[in-house]
Amino acid sequence: MHTTLQADPDFVNDHSVTNTAMERPVLYVIKIGGNIIDDEEQLALFLKEFCAVEGRKILVHGGGKLATKLAGELGIKQQLIDGRRITDAETLRIVTMVYAGYINKTIVAKLQANGSNAIGLCGADANLVLSHKRVHPEIDYGYVGDVDVVNTAIFKNLLEQGLTIVMAPVTHDKQGQLLNTNADTIAQEIAKALSPAFDVTLLYGFEKSGVLMNADDDKTVIGKINAAHYRELKDKRVIFAGMIPKLDNAFAALNSGVSKVIIGKAENLKDLVSGQSGTTISLD
Amino acid sequence: MHTTLQADPDFVNDHSVTNTAMERPVLYVIKIGGNIIDDEEQLALFLKEFCAVEGRKILVHGGGKLATKLAGELGIKQQLIDGRRITDAETLRIVTMVYAGYINKTIVAKLQANGSNAIGLCGADANLVLSHKRVHPEIDYGYVGDVDVVNTAIFKNLLEQGLTIVMAPVTHDKQGQLLNTNADTIAQEIAKALSPAFDVTLLYGFEKSGVLMNADDDKTVIGKINAAHYRELKDKRVIFAGMIPKLDNAFAALNSGVSKVIIGKAENLKDLVSGQSGTTISLD
């Protein structure tokens, strides 16, 4: 059933009131990868800076080399197709142990020591991130999940209680199956889903300092990119190859309500957040 | 500063009103051990019955043989003193992976499939269970935690949201150190701490059918034990050895506000809860 908007002379005023009433609290969704997780010293520094960032926070972590190392120690062969791990049952067990267990709880304990009241979760917990086993015409990725739904109510409640959420890249299908899920995707889907309630900045930790004018020179970071600028950079082939899907994803997030996307070295978190480092991407 | 209670003629009435207002919702704190966790079929049956139990629920799980198996596969030697695992840094890593990762999330996913909105946590999460590294005059237990504080506010909030909490036996010291912690103790401390807010039944899954009149005959379960009865059973040496600390702990919980303690086979959860199986322990 459709609701027809009535031609109400007060509509403009009502709308502006709604806008004011809708002023949303700030939320950072920050994704870190192996380069931080695998380096104990870097991780400690990062977590200290992370605690100093003001506002509500969700930290999404990947897995790093630990899962591969453990699989090696246990003699479980890892198969990668296009850089994606094929997740057989044994690999899923390792992923669940390392990502949702060791890495997640180690980060939580360190955040707690830094005065941040962290809670470590995966997508199965409270049915936070519901996904389905990937269907692909040619490749059987195994127990890999593609995200369907982010259940925002519990996220909101936990954040409102002052908790910092630490998310492991494991989801479930609500049929009892855990699924290995890309951490970038989880961060993006959470950021999008929480945008109606929060003013969301989505920050991707990256091995480079940001989007570069010259891919070989880490000093050529483009500080700001908007939609028009992005089209221009693509036309000029400044941005190409692997950076295109990354930026397409960033704009998809922005078009779904995320306020800002920042890409850069998570080691410089403070400067990334303040816009003094990395690339800040916005619609205009 | 002390507050002196005034001789108020309405005091008796006030008191009874307070009692009525304090009628507490039912909470089950249920602990399961290796005999259930290690047996996939038993675990599936148990979790189905667990979902059918009405009321708020916290499931505390131990570790089972998986941690020992993984340690063996990785060539990490396990040292036990008086049946307690000595937790060196490598063993703590395994415990965190297996207990807080694999077992915890596997149970959560299965509960979700059974329609129970479960959330898997350890004591470091939201600072739920704060402990200190065990101090012992002779034995260095390694990274083993003794519980200091259960932080009830988040427990209450999560339960009020209709979530079922699944607790892994790992806590932290709020200095960044995770600690391997006895699951029975965690269950007991949580049950005690939540007693002011909930009408708590503490249920221990056990390898026997309950407290037995004849330790060798699983059919001689004593259905009910109260404090007077317990003294009698101890005097008559019906209860001896390993059962004494278990029952002492049960009475300590009851004396701290827990309404009921049930001991029996978790496989018979439904009958344990209804009092048709196992031993129900209460003060009177």
Q: What is the spatial order of strands in the main beta sheet of chain A?
A: 5-8-2-1-11-13-14-12
Largest interface: pair, residues per side: A-B, 39 and 39 residues
Report the end-to-end length of chain A measured between terminal Cα atoms. Answer: 35 Å
Q: What is the ordering of alpha helices and beta strands of chain A?
A: HEHHEHEEHEEEHEEEHEEHHEHE
Total beta-strand segments of chain A: 14
Q: Based on the structure, what is the oligomeric state of the protein chains?
A: homodimer
Low-confidence stretches of chain A: 1-21
What keyword list fits this structure?
eight-stranded mixed β-sheet; two-stranded antiparallel ribbon; 10 helices; globular; 284 residues; alpha/beta; homodimer
Characterise the protein shown here:
The structure is a homodimer of 284-residue chains. The model of chain A is unreliable at 1-21 (pLDDT under 50). Chain A has helices spanning 11-21, 34-37, 40-52, 66-73, 89-113, 152-160, 183-194, 227-235, 243-255, 269-274, and strands at residues 26-32, 56-61, 79-81, 84-86, 118-121, 129-133, 145-150, 164-167, 170-172, 178-180, 199-205, 224-225, 260-264, 279-281. Chain A is globular and about 45 Å long. Chain A is of the alpha/beta class and 284 residues long. In chain A, α4 packs across α5. Chain A binds chain B through residues 73-74, 93, 96-102, 104-106, 108-110, 112-113, 117-122, 124-127, 154, 157, 161, 163, 170, 172, 174-178, and chain B through 73-74, 93, 96-102, 104-106, 108-110, 112-113, 117-122, 124-127, 154, 157, 161, 163, 170, 172, 174-178.
